[in-house]
Amino acid sequence: MILDNRGLEPPQPMIRTLAALENLKEGEVLTIINDRRPMFLYEQLEELGYQQRTEQQEDGSFKIEIFR
Q1: What is the model's pLDDT at position 40?
Q2: pLDDT tens across 21-49, in order?
Q3: Which Gene3D superfamilies does the annotation name (predicted)?
Q4: SS3 assignment, position 25
Q5: Rounded distance between C-alpha atoms, residue 28 and residue 25, angstroms
Q6: What is the per-residue pLDDT for 22?
Q7: Has this prediction a pTM greater than 0.70?
Q8: H helix intervals, 4-65
Q9: Residue 10 preceded by cis peptide, ω within 30
């Protein structure tokens, strides 16, 4: 599942991401694309037992893959 959060003001990207995680099944990956690095999201992911991989894109956005 890919969730494009570009153009949204905080906290919308985090709210959308956490809502999408509720539907994520074991073994699936949620990929989000944000305008900025989601620093506050990382703490939430850790508390919920998720791992993430963050990669800055050439256009300055960030692609974050979230998984268990």
Answers
A1: 94
A2: 999 999 999 999 999 999 999 999 999 99
A3: TusA-like domain
A4: coil
A5: 6
A6: 95
A7: yes
A8: 12-21, 39-48
A9: no
Per-residue pLDDT at 13: 97
Q: What is the DSSP string of 2-20?
A: EEE-TTPPTTHHHHHHHHH
Query: Cβ contacts of residue 67 below 8 Å, gap of 6+?
Result: 28, 29, 30, 50, 51, 52
The pLDDT mean for the chain works out to 96
The answer to whether residues 42 and 66 touch, using CB atoms and an 8 Å cutoff, is no
Q: Give the Cα separation of 17 and 47 in Å (integer).
A: 14
Q: How many helices (H) and strands (E) does the chain have?
A: 2, 4
User: H or E segment at 54?
Assistant: strand 51-56
Tokens 């991989």 label which residue?
Answer: 53
